[in-house]
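Record 1 of the preview.
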Amino acid sequence: MTTLSKYLQTRILWLLLPPLWALFLFTIFWLYALPLPSLAYALAVCLVFSLPWLSLDFYYWRRRHLQLQSLAPVLQVDFHQLPQPRNQIDADWTELFLNVCQHKQQQLEETRQSNKQMQDYFITWGHQIKTPIAALRLQLQGEPLEQVQEIEQYVEMLLTYLHLEGQASDYVIRQCNLDEIVQQAVRHFAPQFIRRRLRLNYQPFEQTVLTDQRWLLFVLEQVLSNALKYTPEGGVIRVYGDGDTVVIADSGIGIRPEDLPRVFEKGFTGYNGRTERKSTGIGLYLSKQVCERLGHGITVTSRPGQGTLVRLDLSRGRRVVE
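->
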């Protein structure tokens, strides 16, 4: 619909008024037997004087319409950017708009404060729960200890999720010994390797990488945890380097091709996760988010029945040196 047609719709009553007046005058002239050419002359004079007024009104209406259209895609509009009210109705609409915006802003601030308090509570809880978990680790051995490790992992996932959702910026980017980080992640799962008779094929890393040690360790533990979950007893897990890329490959059950494009989605467990009931659908999502913030890359390839291969590309992205 053109701008002119929109204008005519808004001024429909005004446009109907002249024909009504013309009909009224025609009736008067006809009843009093006045010459109709005089009526035509009077109507022509009225039309001549009306056209400039309508043109000016259309000009101001169109300018206001375009101003509002240009502000429509803007998420935050300053009060001074709004067109000045031309009458009381415009002023009433402007005041209503400002009141709605202020109320919405107040609600958003209250929600933000509430979420911040809840986030702070869960972060505090997550750090406090680590103390009794550490005490349990000292008392338990064997399979019960693995359950404690799993609890630790879920607590760490919760804290990571809260940090990421809260846009926390506690990253410390520096040159780190890659072999030390990978070995720390492998040692964390050593009891499971032993109990389930899984063979670890580990090739030492001889380079340093620019990363955050704590967050990279979290990603490595998530990937290794998945490899352990879906690799049957007696299987093989390989950890080796390919340039600046850490490769973790397992001989597990693999991932279906239709599930591969969605493995990094929040809450997606896939066919294997639903069948085995071991997946939370959050580990790879968090790993992807952490890698994006560190400037690293993470990709997954897999074949059902043959295993899964995860590549952590530590050379990608922007680097910020501490």
